[in-house]
Amino acid sequence: MRAVSDDAPLLQDLMPWSVRPLRLGRRWPMAPEPACLKARWARLTAADDDAERAALLHPTRARGPYTAVAQLPGHRTPTTALAREQGPCPEPVRVRHGAYDQQWLIPDHRLIDAARPELWRVADDTQVFAIERAPQAEPDEPALAFSALLPDGHSQGGKPSLIRPLFRQPGGREPNLAPGLTDWLAARLGLTVTAYEVLAWIAAAARPDPAGTTVPLPKDVDIWRAGVDLGARSVWLHTRGARFADPAAGRDSARLRLPGGSRPYVRAPLPAVPPPEGPEFDPDEQCLRIGTGQVSPVSSAAWDVTAGGVRVLEDWYGQRVPAPADGSLEALCPPTWTRAVTSELLELISLLTLLAALRPDLDAFGERLSAAAASGATPGATDLCAAGILPVPVARRRPASVLEHHEEGPDGQFALL
What is the tally of structural domains in the chain? Predict the structure, then answer.
């Protein structure tokens, strides 16, 4: 146990409610493109008999052809047993896969072993999810990633992540922050402090620690403003412009774009079918080669970005190589590399390039915070305890009650939340 001292408080105390990653139980309900998910669903529902349908489903102890479950919040999907399902595929939704990838998921509770409904209830256009990597993960990687999309919490390298929503209620209500934290910061800084600003500060100040993620807090207004500005840019990049957009600060809500001279382009056509061999990187020519295709310029900094010790671009590519044709639903993949996938690759390269360019500023800010802590200019956990903010009430570590929406239970029954 980490003793409460003048050390920086832990993120688990500042954002006390966390949710474990989604557990699909089968890989086929998620894919890089929605069309193949609809093809997989059509294959499942067209199965000739129960045995074939069960084999395609890939049953587990949690989910099988006759498992009775409720709807996922916000998605009016059928709740009849999958063994009797004949309807169309529920419309796939975009989700965050891992730290940087975006994929599509069939939002059907009958297909997902542990869907974490409490996350789906609060996923809306005001929410921001902080994805906290395991303390034992790679020490040189950022402690946090951020997403506007519902994240699956998957972690490259096999280490679990924790998902911390900024808000406990839909519509940006009831921040997932230690009660009284924003008022305490406002009183110390002489400013109005919002939940979004606290999240931006966390994005700039959070550092990995063996005990968890630490978040030094400021006494100085100038340090606070610098951290909030820096963190806002970081979250804006991670969410690809969906959150913290501010054109006046150079953060447009449009698609992320690099300056013309450093913007990646397809210099030689990419192969119609991606080869199983991973992409190759030429640092001298700043070129990414996929078979006979070429994309450039690609910086070494973007190529070297890792998550869970796994190179992000290599992992992204591996997710899009067709699976062996073994008769499984997962083997149903797009027959060719589509233009949309190429656009996603270029966008990911741009994102990694921009995040790598921000890294020196974040490191320099961390050194500034360390110097402030050494001089006693950062309050610690004992200050929060003295103010009655820590320890947080046990109830704040659990989901909030959400009673606004009807959610259909198994076979058309309604669930009372």
Answer: 1
